[in-house]
Amino acid sequence: MISLETLRERPLSFSSMKEFSKSPRHYLDYITKPKTPPTDAMKLGSVIHCMLLRPEAFNDEFAVAPDINKRTNAGKEEWAAFTAQNADKLVIGNDDYEHARRIVDSVLTSNDIRNLIQNCYDFEQEWQMDVDDLPYRGFYDGISEEYILEVKTIKDANPKNVMFEFYKSKYHLQAALYAMSSGKDVYYIVIETSEPYLSYAAPSTVQYIQKGADEIGTLNERFKMCMNMNGFRGGYNFFNEIKIDLPFSVDK
Q1: Is 37 among the domain residues?
Q2: Which of 56, 161, 219, 229 is the most buried (most CB within 10 A)?
Q3: Residue 249 located in a structural domain
């Protein structure tokens, strides 16, 4: 049973509401099932975030694995000692570390990006607020007097691809929550993780934020409906009848 009391203990977030937008059952699984290990792309994104925004915290959060031959008894013992010593850190390989370093070095050649980061007075700052009487929480990558800074890594940073991928990932919901909770503009640092490692800074538009706010409003109403009906085991057809038709992208 999902109630306001349980939501006060575990507020909604962009990630949980993104799952709810798929179906109520997706949300229920998200909050009840064990988290899956991070993918290689997620690990790389985390390393880049830390190197770029909080380099002083890198050694506290990550450990670069030494070159150990784990097929020998001595190597197995050395690896066991290393993992035990760094049990609370995310372990990455040296190749992954160097890859991230090359990307960050490329990013920091941009004066615009460096200025956006330097103007932030805090990073990974938690925020909480009620939206339509539902509690939400999240973390800003960076916050300045004038804007919220969000860092996104993507394999292909072509602006047309970024707009498509961001919309598919529903990042406009996240941006709307940032704007509503802070009353500030939202700026992105978009980082390409494949060569030539191009990156750029870009503001979100009013239309982008408004689209996210409109969808958040609709999702909140549906979420409250599920709370009243105890309907969080509902599937894809909980809100809309499913019919198989042609996709919108098909040429007529």
Answers
A1: yes
A2: 219
A3: no
CATH of the domain at 15: 3.90.320.10
Distance, CA of 79 to CA of 73 (rounded, Å)? 10
Q: How confident is the model at residue 249 (pLDDT cuts 50, 70, 90)?
A: low
Is 234 a domain residue? Answer: no
> Would you state the structure tokens that stand for residue 14, as one six-digit string?
């962009």
Distance of CA 100 to CAs 142, 206, 238, Å?
19, 32, 42
pLDDT above 90 as % of the chain: 81
How far, in Å, CA of 69 to CA of 197, rounded? 32
CA gap 22, 58 in Å, rounded: 35
Please provide the average confidence, as pLDDT, over all residues in the chain: 94
CA distance to 101, 142, 212, per residue, from 185 (Å): 29, 12, 14
Furthest-apart CA pair in the chain: how many Å? 66
Could you say which DSSP state residue 66 is in?
Answer: P
- Rounded to the nearest 5 percent, the helix, strand and coil shares of the chain are 50, 20, 30
Mean pLDDT of the region 159-184:
97
Placement of tokens 């784990």 in the chain: 70
User: Is there a domain that residue 53 lies in?
Assistant: yes
Q: What is the span of the domain harbouring residue 135?
A: 4-229
pLDDT grade for 134, boundaries at 50, 70 and 90? very high
